[in-house]
Design a protein that fits this description.
alpha+beta; Penicillin V Acylase, Chain A; 9-stranded mixed sheet; 7-stranded mixed sheet; elongated
Amino acid sequence: PVTIVVPKIKTSNQAMLFIDGGSRSSSAYLEEAMEYIAVLTGTTVVHVKNIPSQPIVFKEEVVAVGEEDNFEGEDFFLRSRSEDAIIAYSYDRYIDSYIESDGDPNQEWPLLFPMAKAAVKAMDMTQEILGPDAISGFVVSGASKRGWTTWMTGAVDSRVTAIAPIVINVLNMKDHLMHHRKAYGFWSPAIYDYAQENVFDRLLPTGEGMEVTPEAESLLNFVDPYQYSLRGSYPMPKFMLNATGDEFFVPDTAELYYHDLEGEAHLCYVPNVGHSMGGIDLEGDITDPDNPVGMLLAWYMAVTQNAALPHFTYSFEENGAIKVETDPNNPPVAVRMWQAEQPTEGLRDFRNHKLPQGAWTSTTLTSPSSVYVTPEPEPEANHYTAFFVQLEYENDAELPSGEIQHGVDISFVLRNLLGFDVPNFVFTTGVRVLPETYPEFTGYVANIERPDIVYFDEETLPVVVVYGAPYDMGHYYGQLMANDINAFIPAYLEAYKLHTGMDDAFLTEAWEQAAAVMDDRILQEIEGMADALALLENSVTLEELQLAHAAMLREPLDTWNTATTSVYRGLMSGSDAAHAVTVNGPMARDLHQYQCAVVYIPDKGAPHTVFTYAGLTIGHVAVNLGAISAVEVIEPDSAIPGATNMLAAIRSIMYDSYSLRDAIAAAKAALPGYAATLVLGDGRNELRSALLRTDDTGTLVEERYDLANTVGAGSRGIIYAAIAAVADALKTQIESVVPSGVDINELSAIAGTAPSAQTGSNLLSLVVDADGYDFNIWFSTAQGGTDAGIPGNALNMQLLLP
């Protein structure tokens, strides 16, 4: 819908085109804020909403009746997308189309194109309704995705006389994304939609040359405003209104693009606000230099009235200061330095929710000349500080003037009755962060370093967090868990050989066979771990680590067994989806005290947690940030002639899969050569699960997405699996709870009690529950001679990330 507001008294024939969000249910109505802006500025305001048109369901995310266990009589929507989720999907499809077509992508995919087209059509419609001469040009503005659309619209339509993108501090995306990742260690949750589609990882430079892939370069040439600027697409005045505490962007990114912009460009960072900017508030004092609305209107009134804009330049000095050089013929009326210090040691993060309220404070800068230099900030040791300079200037723009009725001038009404006046200009430099180094993301034991997040001690379960390339993550793992690794690996190899009668020669051959097809990232992790341990005396060797992995991949099938129940959508009560897993194993080996959780945060790929044993990179349970979970169920009497289990393949799935379909495709490419069942869950994207079953030859014989009809459930969805000895009892247990819907407590009981949990061998019970931004993994581990039982500890994986 489009609303056009034409004031009775006009100061200019230029109009504001404000691009806004909304949904298909949005109706065309006059918003008071738009009416105020039109009257106050004396310009026509064109308010276009529902950009992009949303929500959108893509046909690729629709399961037709009769397909993939959809027997509910109507098509099943996997996703209904809005906002960034649509843009991310469109970028993903563009990149895929580039690869699939050998460089001839479908250029209709990037969503910003139809978003900009909608803005162009709104201008067309306005001129058609008001007449071709009623509007001499459009000043385009919008926030967030609409700010991105503002940039795109300005690049393609000559009627655009100025642009004011709001909270879209994203230009020079290649360098911006690198900076973001180095500052935070991973992506901010606000942009998880892009991480979920593996978009931003694919836009990062690859290799030492720091070049992006051809498909990434192609997309960036279309959607990065910086590329348009380098081509001379923005000669018009530009006003970039940014938030210091924006949840989407790192604040100090202006240096990556601002000085390269052609033509007139002004920055304005607003302190102590996040991405929402606090909303549009015209009831406040718009002449207050801290009011974002006044900041925008001051610039807008000037450009529509052809009033002069002030000019200044700034630079970041080698000593850490910011120097601002102003025009001595047009000095600012006030100059302030805004500064905030991050109170958490080592954290380079100035998002609003990561700072105390009101953390940004100002001090006045004075100068006997036209040059202003900030004091050199001295951040506390191991802390980061951020600062910028704000300049306030008088504004020569005027309020509308003219009789509205009975000889009353509108300027009198605005100024004396409504309390409005022309706000001063408020512009800023870019934000500078000191020290100019990135945090070191290496590794730590979360029980010790993050007791605010991990509430249980190491005796319950050590939680190790490691960052970086695969080799580096393995190295940090080895450093942090050296004592447990040196205790577990020899003991495990001895127990395995005693139980199986196998020797080192068998394990060496098994390792060679497994390594030949194993994900190279896992091999690098093991090498990194070995190199870290080699720095210590009397540590296990690379060969011992390899043999231990071979042993875990070739464990006798009567030694370990798993059971799993995954519930989602209509059958899940209080959450969208959850996945319960029970691991039963050789408790008599007395090695369960070496269980641990390793949280991998790779340079590229999905962060994921593996529940395993000290020194192993594979485990019976794993889950990644997309809430993709995987567990293999193998019958004790299955024959494995020279085959290994799927634990290594599950790690690859964790690295690369962001949706259930991704995980299924990866699993099908690595099916075992024996009878087994693999259950995959997706708790954040498709919100469903799947079961893949192979026969004795390793042939896929069953692929299921819902077993609700097998347990008498009237709605989707549930997947469950266990060894034959307990499968019927598990089914009976599930049938007793599904009529009222399954909640987390009931699912935890299924995981921690019989038949899934077997007395005397229940080593681990857990439930994965990703609900919004929370990502709780509820678990219990065997302690001493006591079974794990019902999960009672919570590990919020989300809180270990930015």
